[in-house]
Amino acid sequence: MVLRAAQPALAKAWRCLVLGACVGFVPRVAAATEVRIGARTIGESYVVVAPGPEPRLLRRTRLVQYLNLGVYELLPPREVDQWRREDEDGQLEIVASMRVRQDFGDFLRDAGLDSGPVLNSIDGRQIDLMYGYLQGRRLGGFFDFRAGRQFETSGLDWYAFDGGWARANTPAHLAVEVFGGLQVNGAHVFGWPTWELDGTSGNEPADRAGSPMMGAAISLSELRWIHARVAYRRTFTPAGINRNILEPTGAPDGSVNEGVIAGVDQELVSATLNMSLAKGVFSPFAAARFNLGTLRLDDLSAGFGVAVSERHAIRAQYLRTIPSFDLDSIFNLFTLQPFEDVRLSYQVQAGGGWTLLGRGSTRIFRNEPTAALGVEPESRLALGWGGALAALWQRKRFSVRTDAFVQGGEGGLRAGGSVDSQVRVLNDRIGIDLRSYFTRYVDDQVPERQGYGLSFQAGADFKLWDGVHLTLLAEELLTPFLVHAFRGLANLSVDWSFRAGRRGS
């Protein structure tokens, strides 16, 4: 596979437009504003098995271009003799990221009606605005804000929207947040399909409707030993702003004369807690997400870390999760059972560059009877188990790591291991990576679903210039179903910055 280093003309044009717009934000008597630009061109080629009665190998070839922009220190220093504005005085900055992607090869053309369209975004576009917003930090010493496309996490809740977010910090170490806007929809211009709600097909008219989102949160702020936050978020689809979207009536003639029915898509309360006690020796944590639409706890995570000594550390965690769907999805009518997982790990800094890690886990599957159907499960509780060992040896320019794992019980058997290493030469200008892994799997429900995978990988990272890297990766995969499944990957990364403007006088 050959990858041209030249950046697409579209990316260059977009960069010039954004830079021109950013200049307008720079005050005439401002200090020098820092502009950072990062670009990545990724090319990937491999083969897959085509679906259908006749097994066929089809080539997949993908090209992805990322362009990241950051404009920092838009506000000048308060004092004449300062080169940079102090953090506590507040600052404005702009950050943005755009992705352009395209698929080539046989798969897009010959994979069939069900598989080919999956490669495109929901509306056929391949241009995504990942994020892009103007941000203010510590303005007036207490106020933060963001305006534009942004993504946010709150405990186990994560989302993206186009709109505004604001936070006010109080002297009582409490911060109050409000946010609102339109939920990011993959069917819209510059949409991002990753954020589509589960339970929506993406190709129905109602899935392209505009969905406002609003919420609020309260959190502890500026305390080193504890962080806590509780947030409320509601996403809904009003009929008033979606009058032009018509849905099928279900009539035999396929008529479409019904508008979008107003409703709530999501209504969630999330919470998170992280603590660092006894000078970091004991670190408990917890996070939860409660679904007000279904009145159930969708996600829960809790655990703790203990630094037994400078070389020994223990971490324990409990996870519980259940699928969450759009509230108007039919999947909410099905009986859903949570999945639970208990994990324990022990890490040792053994000295001499060695780090040893051991992990164990237990999976819990609860099968409750279905009263409406009169179905009684064979067993109300099923267990799975797993364990893993890892060893890492690291020096200044060389490292090697080996892993082994096994997972059994409910679901079948998974076992395998891997060995990978890296060495850097020519004053760290070239990094060489070698890796191999093996996996054996046996399904306990479908006897035919068993086999193995053996992979060999080789890669190299070349530092062409400061901030300019070329990475190449090749992989050969052997399985009972694929012979010589070669995969190639190339990545050109360009990251540079400059300062514009002048110091205030």
Give the averaged pLDDT, no decimals.
83
User: For the terminal residues, how far apart are their CA atoms?
Assistant: 55 Å
Strand content: over 45%
What class, by secondary structure content? Answer: mainly beta
Helix content: under 10%
Task: Summarize the biggest pleated sheet.
Answer: 22 strands, antiparallel, barrel
Helix and strand string, N-terminal first?
A: HEEEHEEEEEEEEEEEEEEEEEEEEE
The unreliable regions are 1-30
Counting DSSP E segments of at least 2 residues, the number of strands comes to: 24
C-alpha geometry: globular
Q: In angstroms, what is the radius of gyration?
A: 26 Å
- Number of alpha- plus pi-helical segments: 2
SSE arrangement:
Layout: H1 9-23, E1 33-50, E2 56-72, E3 91-104, H2 106-110, E4 127-139, E5 143-154, E6 157-169, E7 174-183, E8 212-220, E9 226-237, E10 246-247, E11 258-259, E12 263-275, E13 282-291, E14 296-307, E15 312-321, E16 339-351, E17 354-366, E18 381-394, E19 398-409, E20 412-425, E21 430-443, E22 450-465, E23 468-478, E24 485-500
Antiparallel strand pairs: 1-2, 1-24, 2-3, 3-4, 4-5, 5-6, 6-7, 7-8, 8-9, 9-12, 10-11, 12-13, 13-14, 14-15, 15-16, 16-17, 17-18, 18-19, 19-20, 20-21, 21-22, 22-23, 23-24
Task: Supply the key terms.
22-stranded antiparallel β-barrel; globular; disordered N terminus; two-stranded antiparallel ribbon; Alginate export domain-containing protein; single chain; 505 residues; 24 strands; mainly beta
Put the structure in a nutshell.
It comes from Enhygromyxa salina. This protein is mainly beta. The chain contains two helices and 24 strands.
